[in-house]
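In the previous chapter we treated chains in isolation. Here, by contrast, the input contains four separate entities that must be folded as one system, with a combined length of 630 residues.
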Amino acid sequence: MAECPVCGYEFDLPPNTEEGEIISCEDCGSELEVTGKDSVQEAPAEEEDWGE
Amino acid sequence: MAECPVCGYEFDLPPNTEEGEIISCEDCGSELEVTGKDSVQEAPAEEEDWGE
Amino acid sequence: MIIVKIGGGSRINVKGIIVDLAALDEEFIIVHGANALRDKLAEDLGQPKQVLTSVKGYNSVYSDEKLIDVMMMAYAGLRNKRIVELCQQNGINAVGLTGLDGKTVLGQRNQGIRVYENKKQKLIRDFSGKPQSINKDLLTLLMGNGYVPVITVPIIDELNCAINTENDDVVRVLQAAIKADTIINLIEAPGFLKDPEDEGSLIPAIAATDLEVHEARADGRMKRKMMAIRRLFEHRASRVIIADGRSEHPVSDALKGKGTVIQ
Amino acid sequence: MIIVKIGGGSRINVKGIIVDLAALDEEFIIVHGANALRDKLAEDLGQPKQVLTSVKGYNSVYSDEKLIDVMMMAYAGLRNKRIVELCQQNGINAVGLTGLDGKTVLGQRNQGIRVYENKKQKLIRDFSGKPQSINKDLLTLLMGNGYVPVITVPIIDELNCAINTENDDVVRVLQAAIKADTIINLIEAPGFLKDPEDEGSLIPAIAATDLEVHEARADGRMKRKMMAIRRLFEHRASRVIIADGRSEHPVSDALKGKGTVIQ
């Protein structure tokens, strides 16, 4: 079970989710980054453009 | 005909001499460096050791 | 004071640029790229470059540790030192610096680039980011003693790691620090072109205020170049010239207004 | 003041060296090699290194323009900037320099190495030579402002060209300029060995005056190393320590006298 760091909602990650994938919390809709089998963290805010 | 820059002695370079080869002048014995088909120059003095 | 950005294309006439600079009686700083050398080296080493396109259409090179190694060899090693050598041969006492050296260019590691990968949005983290400030004291110290800085990537991030960044952005933060009046950006084209395929379609002049319009229409790398140049004017650049780095006298031609003059 | 020479072998523990240096309360300058990286890069690029053995038994790398390119990538690029990065990560504000940058190390192009080639004596000219002086002002300027120079080849010759040289010789001219009291030379061995094959045969101490004897017995690269070290003492070095760059704390071990101490 993964837990949304923003609203605490607990949910199962769909089987084919990959690390680094961005999903939104079904409860509060925050953007979350998948960091492991059952772990997520808040996705960093999108920045305009990156690197070279 | 090549000419020894040290003593002016003129001589033919043996057919298989290569550029960069060091030969000595038959007349004065100076060390000469072959720089072309018929051209030689005084070979630089030998230095102790070079580069890396 | 002039900032000269030497593009990294293989047909850039670096010698011509340095000979022109040697004849200048104005102070200048060089920033340079080396993308052609890097791409060839990456190919030769069997590590072809991977380009990421962000969800918003911005292109960037996937910069893992291996790619940073290749960049250090191509940008900080071969290109930088051959430019320094050419400078020395023309009476310019150059000192080559990356952003790491003396923390010349400090940046912020990106928090992850959002890309689409088999229809999912993914966050790719690598060693790339954005420059934010310059160690102006080091540059003034060197220039005050007759040295000319020759700057290139990588830069240094908040964790003191080497990161990749867009050289045009390095020019922007450099401009913010030293307020040069002219910035010359030498590329493998006559300047900005209406039609990128037609070298005859040079846009001779653009008003700085219109840059945003051009940026909206461009995409990938060109969009980034436009945005970086727009930002230059936020830091009191008076004139930015995009000129042909392949000609015989790239710098003197540019100073005569040959290319796209933005002001 | 200490000069630390970091060898270019792949098993040198560069991180351990930098962590030790960060804890030092004495000023230091770093000189480093990168021969392992260069050899691998040359191999990968299909340009394997060629070694010339002079008529007098001295080995040197045939340094044509291509080899200098590879050296710029391996020494001035990858190795130098990864060392600078490690320094920054340990609070050492390093500035990487080749001899070209600001003419830090000036040298003289060799007049040609005499070699035997199919029984003939031939003169091979390439981009190599000997260092002769240091731009001490630049080093003092940087060190006086809190920067630590990290120096490597190539150096600059009388024609302002990049040339290859022996890093040990760079240490010699550096010593002549800055008169360090201790020079630490970190290599992939416990120190000088009676029998090069037996790591247990460490020579713990050598009187500076006996160096010439050792030099006569050595050959190829080791002969050159011995001669370079003998010259150090001509420039008032008080202590030269040849120590193991592979250990956990190469610098602090060396300062405790672990290795070959020559004084």
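The domain at 2-262 of chain C is CATH 3.40.1160.10 (Carbamate kinase). The helical segments of chain C are 14-23, 35-44, 65-89, 136-144, 167-178, 211-217, 220-234, 250-255. Compare these points with the single-chain example from earlier in the chapter.
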